[in-house]
Structure prediction request, 321 residues.
Amino acid sequence: MVSIEDVAKEAGVSIATVSRVLNGSGYVSEETELRVLQAMRKLGYKPSLTARVLAKKRVFNVGVLISTRISELLPTELGEFYRIMISAIENSAEIYRLNVRIVNFEAEEIPKMDGYIIVGSDMEKEQVESLAKSSRVVLLDHYIEGLRIDSIVSDGYDGVYFVTELAISSGFNTIAHLHGPLKYFGFRDRYNGYIAAMTKHGRLPLTMEYDELHEDVDTALKKLFRDRKPDLIICSNDVIALQALKKLQEWGMRIPEDVSIIGFDDIPSAAKNNLSTLRVQKSEMGLNAVKRLFELLNHQSTHPYKQCVYATYVKRGSSLV
Prediction:
């Protein structure tokens, strides 16, 4: 029988690190967490907490539903956020005896499955509701108000609220928010955190919507700078932040002396480009989505809940905050 010690040896980590991954307690880097999950999958390790249920030898079929937008992003640098989540799902699903199939719900008919993990916020509320009537459903990186379907999200509201307040207390005067389309829950949640923090301190919000997939950041930044120059721009994801950072440098601005830039997500490119950001625990969110669906499929803790994973501020060279 494979033990936790075997997993630790295979992954090249301590037993305590494997335990933290299994229990979702304490900090483990995404790279290490994925290595541990891959080791578990390779060795066929089954967590003892699920041994009784796994002993029944029931294999559940699970659809991981993604949109065309996410499907097209996955092979690109812009898709790092979702690639990490989906990799965590795939590596942990086998551990929990879930047979996973990735499905583009906009390009093919959704097959009948025991349960679904819906990644991102592209699926319409009515379709989510319809799936939930006949199968177990967990939303990942999405939450639908009033629907009461299990959701695993990063706490974008709190993250942006925290860093906005931190900037205000650090003496920043003009703090702007460059955000993605507010039809997406994640962007909307982060936007609301910025507005709440600015309002609390009697500051005038300065916002600009920008679709990084279909628009030119040059135009968005020119509109943002039209009335007054911000000394800090908080962006609703790292892709937007990196595009803004590059464009401002092309304009001859010094980062962070002239303008500080903060992103959100902490994709691998953020560290490579010395970008300050709010770290989303993407791998942990994917693992937690699998754990939650496993519980629902085995009729454990069936009352739905929304799990918010706090984001952590990571200061690098792009900001003075």
User: Anything to note?
Assistant: The first helix runs from residue 4 to 11.
